[in-house]
Design goal:
Elements lengths: L9 H8 L3 H12 L5 H9 L6 H11 L3 H6 L15 H21 L5 H17 L1 H4 L5 H15 L5 H24 L3 H17 L3 H16 L7 H15 L2 H17 L3 H16 L14 H14 L3 H14 L5 H17 L3 H18 L2 H13 L7 H13 L4
């Protein structure tokens, strides 16, 4: 069942909040004041049917979310809206003061408001990440570093097993985001440190879906360090955790990443096998345990296909795949679009289409202005290095002047 066709996000929110079937069914039972078994909860999670109102109201209360979020997903409230640079200070003022007030109250009375505290911390985590399209990945580092300090100080306290698991999940989530920022900045050693800690935190909290996602992100470090062979055991472990959780979308994404690793190694058959596996997993119907930051879909799959075909020295086929990815993927995902345009520029230069390739590279640079992504700039630089034989041509001279305007050196 695709995200667009999901009738509810009960399974997603249960995993996100760290509840077992028994724990959540007990909470719903208390909220509804009627008997509600874990087998009944399991049937609702696996069903494609809409949730009845008699379940929506007590379940949303038990999960500390709105009814809209339960039915439509975590980003329903923000649908159709975007965060602008002018909103940043307003958001900061809106979330920071209440957060610190809550933390002060909880430190004074640790038995009160635990669930509200975790919900608040999770909300801050998501709000910061939504700012990346305006302030860029790099500028989020200090915000997340301070956020992590708060979470770690809370982890030192004494909590119920459920609270401890949720704090571990939150620490893993924030650690992965910091790792992603470091990866984008090409600081792979620091990124690996954060990813390793994030994986340990996820496993400590028995959140195997978060661990699977973390392993996938971790595998990108050896792939982009020309050590793709080291990525394979990480991806196999990630797939194992995703399989346990019934996380089809995450498993599909891991297969696509593994395909890129095999492409780096020049293993055509293994690469094609993993791409096919990713496609099959995405096409399956039925329940899917989702981690909302994975965002893997058909458009991104074509992006991976294009990157793989480019690595396998099949530029014409890569261009076809990248065109499909660009046309399918929603425009709001600027960083992914920029990466695909940069890859398309490289592929087009290999087919001798210099003017076209420069146009694609400029489009990648324009899009990178929205996310301030170093990874995109690295890909554009790779394109430029590959066009050295045309140095001095009018087209390259014009491209260099435009590149200097969009990405000035120093």
């Amino acid at each position: 069942m695709s995200n667009e066709n999901k009738k509810h996000y009960l399974d997603y929110w249960r995993a996100r909040k760290g509840y077992s079937l028994s724990e959540l069914s007990e909470q719903i039972e208390k909220a509804a004041s009627v008997f509600f078994s874990k087998s009944a909860l399991s049937r609702y999670e696996k069903s494609d049917a809409e949730l009845p109102q008699k379940i929506i109201e007590p379940a949303s209360k038990a999960l500390h979310i709105t009814e809209d979020e339960l039915v439509h997903g975590p980003h329903h409230a923000q649908k159709g809206k975007s965060v602008t640079a002018s909103d940043e200070s307003k958001i900061g003022n809106a979330i920071e003061t209440p957060l610190w007030e809550k933390l002060a109250a909880i430190i004074a009375k640790p038995s009160q408001g635990d669930m509200e505290m975790i919900d608040g911390l999770e909300s801050v985590t998501r709000t910061y990440w939504e700012l990346r399209s305006t302030v860029g990945y790099q500028d989020l580092f200090h915000a997340y570093a301070g956020h992590m300090e708060t979470i770690l100080s809370l982890l030192k306290g004494s909590h119920t097993s459920h609270m401890h698991a949720r704090l571990c999940g939150l620490a893993s989530d924030v650690g992965q985001r910091i790792g992603a920022i470091m990866f984008d900045k090409n600081q792979f050693g620091t990124a690996m440190h954060y990813y390793q800690v994030a994986k340990e935190a996820a496993l400590e909290g028995e959140n195997f879906l978060l661990a699977a996602v973390c392993l996938g992100k971790m595998s990108s470090l050896p792939i982009y360090s020309n050590k793709a062979l080291e990525a394979l055991p990480l991806l196999r472990e990630g797939k194992m955790h995703a399989q346990k959780q019934g996380a089809r979308t995450t498993k599909a994404w891991l297969a696509a990443v593994q395909a890129e690793a095999y492409a780096k190694l020049g293993n055509v058959s293994a690469c094609m096998r993993e791409l096919e596996e990713a496609e099959v997993e995405l096409s399956k119907d039925g329940p899917d345990m989702l981690y909302y930051e994975t965002h893997f879909d058909e458009g991104r799959l074509y992006g991976y296909k294009g990157a793989c075909l480019l690595l396998l020295n099949k530029p014409s086929d890569a261009i076809v795949a990248l065109d499909k990815g660009i046309s399918i993927l929603p425009s709001k995902f600027a960083r992914q679009h920029a990466i695909m345009y940069a890859d398309k520029a490289i592929a087009s230069s290999l087919t001798g289409e210099l003017e076209l390739s420069c146009g694609f590279a400029i489009e990648a640079l324009k899009l990178s202005q929205r996310t301030k992504s170093d990874l995109v700039l690295q890909r554009v630089n790779t394109f430029r290095q590959g066009t050295a034989k045309w140095n001095g041509s009018p087209i390259i001279k014009e491209f260099d002047s435009m590149m200097e305007a969009y990405a000035p050196r120093g």
